[in-house]
Amino acid sequence: MTVTIGRRELLAALGGVAVAWPLAARAQQGERIRRIGILTPYPKGDPEMGIRVRAFREELEKLGWTDGANVQFDQRWTADHMDRVWAEAASLIASNPDVILASGGRVIPVLVQLSRSIPIVIPGASDPLGVGWATSLARPGGNITGFTSFEVSIFGKTLALLKQIAPAITHVAFIYNPDKGPLAVESIAVPIHGFADIDRAVAVLADRQNSGVLFPGDLTTIALRDEIVALIARHRLPAIYSDPAFLRAGGLAFYGPDRIDLYRRSAGYVDRILRGEKAGDLPFQQPTKYQFILNIKVAKALGLELSPTVLALADEVIE
């Protein structure tokens, strides 16, 4: 059967479609697109930071936040340059994001000076209470929350692992934060400000028998990881690091919190903030996953024979 539509009916039908389109568009745009700032004190394209930020974004997508649909990301790379940190932080704050993911002991104070209202989530803070970022771990109270990446006992565990890897060690240099564990090991504090300081310290240390090195997490040393790993290899010193980035650069061993896990958990906090919770009400949480990674190839180059016990302790072994 053929149905004939008159001109008047056709115009009315088209008018209805025209009205329906903006209504549908408004329905899709009912919730504004949220903006997440990411401030990373690493060079643009840093592979280690790329892995962590990708894990953060993937976890957010699992929680319902899709880039370009209901959320936009604004990532800034500053490297370890304070003038760029200030410039990018100021620009990021001026853009008024809904929340910022940021790390670095020299980065967070800048953000704090620029804004006391924009929520900041930290995927690894050393001492948020000690530096005044929180009034308590259970209830930070301000605009900053996140996850800690440090506890005092971790140095004792790290030293114990280094002693198992290289049993002959009798003294260890701490570059940058010195500490002393309950082991038969003399600790040597080596404060540094750049690679020249590290070069001199390692050369002196290499002249002493049975020496080892522990590198606590520090932005300066992480930025210089390729140079540091090459320097340590040249002097044939056993070293253990507090950031897995050193292992990917060819280091011997890493022990510490699972950094990727901290970024994934940070996505959960960002999700809660975007859904209305306050950063100051979200407790700073400690790491729940730790990793011990060993590079067997580096151990062999140093003439170290790794015992079955220490190999069994490793979460990951790099051949």
Report a brief summary of the structure.
By secondary structure, this protein is of the alpha/beta class.
Annotate the secondary structure layout.
Blueprint: H1 7-28, E1 34-40, H2 47-62, E2 71-77, H3 82-94, E3 99-102, H4 108-114, E4 120-125, E5 144-148, H5 153-165, E6 171-174, E7 186-189, H6 195-206, E8 211-215, H7 219-223, H8 225-234, E9 239-241, H9 245-248, E10 253-257, H10 259-274, E11 290-295, H11 296-301, H12 308-313, E12 316-318
Parallel strand pairs: 1-2, 1-3, 3-4, 4-5, 6-7, 6-8, 8-9, 9-10, 11-12
Antiparallel strand pairs: 10-11
Helix pairs in contact: 2-10, 6-8
- Helical content (DSSP H or I, runs of 4+): 40-55%
User: Radius of gyration in whole Å, from Cα?
Assistant: 25 Å
Order of helices and strands: HEHEHEHEEHEEHEHHEHEHEHHE
Number of strands: 12
Order of neighbouring strands in the sheet with most strands: 7-6-8-9-10-11-12
Average per-residue pLDDT, rounded, comes to 85
Query: Which class best fits the helix and strand makeup?
Result: alpha/beta
DSSP helical segment count: 12
Percent of sequence in beta strands: 15-25%
